[in-house]
Amino acid sequence: MPTVSDLLNTIDTTYRNSYSQSQKIQWMNETQRQIFQSVKHEAPPYTFATIANISQYDLPDDCDPKNIKSVVMQRGMYPQYDYDKTNFWELQFVSIDSNRAIDRTGRFYSVVENSKLFLNPLPETKDEGLVVYVYYNKKPAELTINSVPDLEESFHELLILGCLERIARARGEYDDKNVFANDFQALLREYQKQYREPYPEYSTPKDMLPRRRGHSFVNNKGRRVYPDGLIPY
């Protein structure tokens, strides 16, 4: 798969420039982060087990706390009910910075240090090993010279166009900047469309077969109709 180094070669071939590799990689990182904000990429659920007397747990590197959708916690150690929704709590989010009154026994989660999940109430010995599921939209990994972008390969051109637009803007070449920006927006719209409709839409088959006498069907007004005015018996 193409690496960032390959994308840089395409950028330099397309639009001669004297900007450093680190600067262009920074611009590609900015572009990819903006794309992931525009088109959400759901990550596999992150799971961890509670530890007695520990209330804070590290979040994965690709999890921005602002992109957490929900946190679900196991009620008890009953493996036979793992797939029963009644065996889980969906925890409410409470901001640490809010002035909301907090009940020590209330079940909720919060985020501290922008990287740790805080669980309330404090897990006790009887709560050790309960599974917590964190559902979130992931953020892309930082790009380096030899890394492969998280963005799908067929849309790597978005990173190229985003970088070219920034190069042209930095040089004051606004005609070129507008051309790159228009191409970027057109391709981004195509990406958004494909990502939001990941599966093809199949037409619904319509029954066109002739019906025998006495067989009923429903018309477009929802009423049952009988051919030739016959009533079934």
SSE layout and pairing:
Layout: H1 4-14, H2 21-38, E1 46-49, E2 56-58, E3 63-74, E4 88-93, E5 108-112, E6 116-120, E7 131-138, H3 157-171, H4 174-196, E8 217-218, E9 224-225
Parallel strand pairs: 4-5
Antiparallel strand pairs: 1-7, 2-6, 3-4, 3-7, 5-6, 8-9
Helix pairs in contact: 1-3, 2-3, 3-4
Q: How would you describe this structure to a colleague?
A:
This protein is of the alpha+beta class and 233 residues long. It is 29% helix and 20% strand. It has helices spanning 4-14, 21-38, 157-171, 174-196, and strands at 46-49, 56-58, 63-74, 88-93, 108-112, 116-120, 131-138, 217-218, 224-225. The strands form 2 sheets. A 7-stranded mixed beta sheet has the order 1-7-3-4-5-6-2, with no helix packed on it. α1 crosses α3. The N and C termini lie far apart (68 Å). Mean pLDDT is 85; it is low at 225-233.
